[in-house]
Amino acid sequence: MRGYRSPLAAIAAAIVFLASLVAAPAVVAAERDIVVWVPKGFKPAAVAALPQSLEGHRVRVRVRDMSNLTERLLSGSVASAPDLVFIDSSSTGSLAAAALLSPVELRRSTRRTLGSAAVDGFRYGFNIHGVPMQTQNVALVTNADLVPEAPKTFAQLRRTALRLQRSGAVTMPLALGQDPTVPAAEALYPLFSGLGGFIFGTNAGGSIDPTKIGINNAAFQKNSDRIDAWNSLGLINSAISQEQAREAFLAGQAPFWIASPTDIEALMGVSFRYRISTVPRIVKGQTPVPLLRSYGFAVTTFARQHGVLEEASSLVQGVLPGARAQRAFYDASPLVGLPANANAAANVPNRQLIAFGAAGSSAVAYPNIEQWGPASIAFVGAWRASTRGPDADPAAVPAAESFAAARSAVRQGLAGGR
């Protein structure tokens, strides 16, 4: 009879239906995304270097304004906070001091491959708080047409530069800008370290120690009269801006220039041959070393609250230090900087950038503590005061005085901040 269904058939159908429910896979909630914040322009590089997912967690890269990252993370909601951030290592101190970064463990072999100075940029306290992806440092660029044989010492450089100026071949003996800015501190630092100076020392863990001030240490005091000699000879003049120094060298009007990797594009357009090298030895026993800027990824403390600390840490500790990830990041990065991984750096196509990296092989980490701000101002101010030129009015201050005053200002600033 149409429409009739026996009780036994209904029972059988119910059993089949219930069995299908038991056999069906349970609906599992999606794993939380691992969220990565990067500044504008860096998303393609981050996407290229990071996997799309890890242990069931999608890796999502988001562009954010990173200029006030510490304040933003402190005031933002936990739910929307990132698990990884791409930062300039100079901000490591403020972020770590605010308990916003989680320490990471980098194997000794990994640290060697990345370079001690690059890794040190992310040290704070007794921990490492990030992995460097790209680095930058200044170097000496020489017009090889004007100076066919590289000077072996700074004294030779000085004599060559002044001779070319006296002959009328150049108008500026050394292209060295001294704007009262952070770039001026980076440009001046190789000369400063070559005289035995340093800004801050380090603690037992290798982190910057603001109480160890080296702006006017004994070694520098012994050699600081060289600055007075350079001033009286007109080799260095604080009236020269960064842009004036750049223009003079590119126009062939300066035989030597202390430049950064961001100047490589301009160098590609000059009509003369040039060399990129370290600043030659100034005094015996002291190596002129530049500051090394590092840029890389750090794990935030929010990763633990989000339940992805282990996965986020494995990205920073295991994936991102590798040559493949570092090269992929470099290829898509807007930053003109060498991969921190030595194997990746050796194979980049930009030979000028490799030369800059070689010039920074003995570099020291760029200070990553808040005290660096006022210290760099005092440091550059001392140089400017002592290199006003032989005919300046008011006259240049002897380096022994200007750097003693700079050290005193830094010490007083530290005392005032306690």
Average the pLDDT over all residues and give the rounded result: 92
CATH architecture assignment of the largest domain: 3-Layer(aba) Sandwich
**% residues in beta strands:** 15-25%
Largest sheet: 8 strands, mixed
Per the principal axes of the C-alpha atoms, what is the gross shape? globular
CATH superfamily (homologous) name of the largest domain: Periplasmic binding protein-like II
Total domains: 2
| Computed Rg | 28 Å
| Ends apart, CA distance between termini | 96 Å
Care to count the β-strands? 15
Enumerate the spans where pLDDT stays under 50 for 5 or more consecutive residues.
1-29
SS summary, helix count: 19
Query: How would you classify the helix and strand content by structural class?
Result: alpha+beta
In CATH, what is the class of the largest domain? Alpha Beta
The CATH topology label of the largest domain is D-Maltodextrin-Binding Protein, domain 2
Helix fraction by DSSP (H/I, runs of at least 4): 40-55%
List its salient traits.
single chain; 418 residues; alpha+beta; D-Maltodextrin-Binding Protein, domain 2; 2 domains; eight-stranded mixed sheet; three-stranded antiparallel sheet; 19 helices; 15 strands; disordered N terminus
Summarize the structure.
The chain is an alpha+beta fold.
Description:
The chain is α+β, with helices and mostly antiparallel strands. The chain folds into two domains: 34-135 and 294-348, 3-Layer(aba) Sandwich (D-Maltodextrin-Binding Protein, domain 2), CATH 3.40.190; 139-289 and 365-416, 3-Layer(aba) Sandwich (D-Maltodextrin-Binding Protein, domain 2). It has 19 helices and 15 strands. Strands 1, 2, 3, 4, 7, 13, 14 and 15 form an eight-stranded mixed β-sheet that branches. A three-stranded antiparallel β-sheet has the order 11-8-12. Helix 2 runs antiparallel to helix 15 (323-332). The longest helix has 18 residues, at 399-416. It is globular and about 70 Å long. The termini are far apart.
